[in-house]
């Protein structure tokens, strides 16, 4: 091995094109194609921003490089990939009211009152993150609750899952919602005992209000996208799969790419066929802006979310036996729309959380697999509550399970309540997916959960929260090894976006996207792993974000 390395470096030294950058004295860790951890001490990067090679040991070989960066023994990992994000919604968290930390309805009211007083403009007040399951009251807020604080401006506050939201009376009036407004297909307007809307709208009913909120200007859209990018880079995320991409999202990403301000890599999935038409894409686009942007697929929805009881179940909810959730499209409609997109080459991603919805997504992909042979990489987004009998159907149909480990931690007690403990054998079943032979890609679903991949890694290997609960982990047989979890955030997520030839590892010829962190994630317990801090984020061999000693950003875009 030593002779091979010496010969390789001799060839480099004889070459007229010197490597641009050497990152040395690092504790390099990545997952190899065999699924095992690889270790290296230095990284050679060409002047094109791509990896020349990782190096086990430099010994005393001297290299003439333009830039040498001493890593100080820090741990270097490939740039983490979040396979499922919502960029605009993440950016909006910096300007909207954030309710994730509320522990009671009174907390929400207090924050709403303070936000309204400090933000007289714009007219609409929007926000997200409340979760009644974390409140002392354990009940969904109503329009009357919001009216008591802000009666004169429209208020629209999303639940933590994003599939349900509550409006005050002013917002209901703007949307024209009354007791006579029917539930739209695939949506529900919650009503009180007298038949009047409570203000809480689920899934497609949300569109009645959302359509009345004034759109952002191009400048605001771009600022929002840049804010999301900065958050992701600070967490070590260098590439994302942007789900439910709107035409406005796409145009913003194109503007940022043209202005050389797009540092993260974005694999975009359009929000349905209408968005594809609005974008004007007749087929998937090629990579643009130095492999920073590509429209790869189209996302469809089979159901809603478990927390708002919109997830479509095979049997009624344990805590609401009057409902099985919402089926958002009949089989024939989903097959028709997905087939139309697949027919021109788009990758198909279907949102499915409940076991009935996941079964529908699998049925759809099984049919598409027969109609559209080749390497299509069908994706199920979330694959959250699944009938164990359906898991073995993934691999034969070449379906990728795009999952979010942080959901298991945040949803655990809620899932037990919604389903009962006897129906959880296929819940957040990461190890079962891998054992079935199917591919696994990890992400966060940010802003509906934290984008921090180290929190996700910790959840994946422990099935416990930050306090170490529950003891031994929740359904511990579904825990992953560290290398399995890291692979799902790197190689697996790259594969899910048809990008494994460009990113996902630091193999020769791939982009030099990597992070330096403050600890060795292989040598700490899960709680310490979750607290890992990113020190620097590099994309294409250039530092794009760094942490100051005070914990802020030294630079970032």
CATH topology of the largest domain: TIM Barrel
Major sheet attributes: 9 strands, mixed
What structural class do you assign from the helix and strand content? alpha/beta
What proportion of the residues form beta strands (DSSP E)? 15-25%
Radius of gyration: 24 Å
Kindly report the average pLDDT value: 93
CATH C-level of the largest domain: Alpha Beta
Count of helical segments?
A: 17
User: Which residues sit in consecutive blocks of at least 5 with pLDDT less than 50?
Assistant: 1-17
Total domain count: 3
Number of strands: 23
Structural description of this entry:
Helix 10 links the parallel strand 15 and strand 16. This protein is α/β, with parallel strands linked by helices and 557 residues long. Helix 14 packs antiparallel against helix 15. The strands form three sheets. Strands 1, 2, 3, 4, 5, 20, 21, 22 and 23 form a nine-stranded mixed β-sheet that branches. It has an eight-stranded parallel β-sheet with strand order 6-13-14-15-16-17-18-19. The chain folds into three domains: 72 residues, Urease, subunit C, domain 1 (Roll); 88 residues, Diaminopimelate Epimerase, Chain A, domain 1, CATH 3.10.310.70; 319 residues, Alpha-Beta Barrel (TIM Barrel), CATH 3.20.20.140. Helix content is 30%, strand content 24%. It starts with a helix and ends with a strand.
